[in-house]
Design a protein that fits this description.
Arc Repressor Mutant, subunit A, 137 residues, elongated, alpha+beta, 9% strand, 3-stranded antiparallel beta sheet
């Protein structure tokens, strides 16, 4: 255990703070939305029931988008030129379903944004990401 030796006068205040070292070894993880209100008065989005109510292909594609997204902006780029006509039709149907569930919005051609309340961005980027989400109905 480390020792701290402090030399102070009787009138002087000294504050010592320590940071607890993480003792649990955990794998990397992603934060998904949950219901409730944060201490900053932001209403949460309860993601698990939404995923239960969408089709299997839409849920699978949503998770693929989560894995491929930019973690600071929640934006996914899907290049249409790389897809067959069948895949484009399938993507179109899946996008409509995900958009209706308020999970994904098209930002511009081939650029899709995942709802930042469904899958959190890096915490310092949340406010900007949320503002951009609200700009695209």
């Amino acid at each position: 255990m480390p020792q701290i030796i402090v030399d102070t006068d009787l009138d002087e205040e000294t504050f010592i703070s320590t940071k607890k070292k993480r003792t649990h070894i955990i794998p990397p993880f992603q934060c998904i939305g949950s219901e409730g209100m944060s201490k900053f008065n932001i209403q949460g989005l309860d993601l698990p029931p939404i995923l239960i109510n969408i089709s299997g292909p839409a849920a699978k594609y949503f998770w693929q988008m989560v894995m491929d997204r930019d973690r600071t902006t929640n934006i996914v780029v899907i290049r249409g030129k790389d897809l067959s006509k069948y895949e484009k039709n399938k993507l179109s149907r899946i996008y409509l379903e995900l958009h209706k569930a308020d999970l994904v919005r098209r930002v511009k051609r081939e650029y899709y944004m995942i709802n930042p309340k469904a899958v959190l961005t890096k915490f310092e980027n949340f406010e900007g990401c949320w503002n951009r989400w609200q700009m695209h109905p």
